[in-house]
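[step 3/7] fold_predict: job queued, chain A
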Amino acid sequence: MPRMVRFWEWLESRPDRTAAMDEWQQVLGGGESISVAQRFLKPLETPSTAYPTSRHRGFPLNNACQRDGIILARDEMDDQTGSSLLDGGVVQYRLCLHRLRSSLCNALSRVCVSRTQIEPDARSIQIGNWEPKKSAMFPVHLLICPSPHDLQFEVYRAIVQSEWPGAILLTPTRMHWSDETINDARSHRRLLVPLCEVVEADGDALRQTSDWEEYLQGFAQIVRLKLPSNYNNTKPLPMRGTRAANIERLELELQQHLMAARHHAYALIDAGHAPELLPRPEQKELARRLSLEPSTVCRCFSDPRAKLLNILWDTARSLESVMRFKPIKRR
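[step 4/7] structure written:
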């Protein structure tokens, strides 16, 4: 799944978190990253005063004119020339921190969303509270800072102003981390966690990665918290996440079949017989083996992410392909 690294890096380099849709699309790069990130964007009601250019500062719109209904950007030195402005460059879109907070809490297990107000320019936002058990609660903050100095200041402020025995401090990336900031945070039972490592795009939503649980285990050690025995019995994965897991199980089952079919063919050759194709299991049989509903297996094969699964499925129909088969590692 896409980790949206460029998106998180961009947030730390653009203090106003505002850009034309063209710029957002360039940063996001398309695919699932843009599908989920566009949910966080909100168009500004105030018209833009400059058209964005590669120079970042933009071309002033007061140097623009209209000709045949098309907005033209005029060169300050030559009023006779100009370049057409795309519609997407005039309307600016800003990151909506409320939407981002809600999506992060939905993705990260056992983080209950905060209802506190968020200032549009805030550098420190309380995302919610991590609640590993009923008797324990730790705040989770998101720090979006444009420099190491600013991040260090926000970490110090989180330490001084909070009375909590510990806290998780999310940052978009590790870009502005320093050894001093990391050590100061840990010495006061605060743990820095980069979002680019613990969440990824999943369709038009975010989902946590396995790294999130590793960071939580480390945080529990910092605050000397003993997790309950049933801690890992978290809420079930969303449907898309569950389907991805089932696709991987089907891939493994088919690879095991292909290895058995390959062994069967070569065993016949070693015995002096002609190789034969071991019958491919039907989807109903795969469902039975994996304790899945046949309809679930059918949807897995139809999922756009099941490219490897369908390759394995087609391979099992050909004796020649089976005899050349080697196990495939899923990326």
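[step 5/7] annotate
The radius of gyration is 26 Å.
The first strand starts at residue 18 and ends at 20.
exit 0
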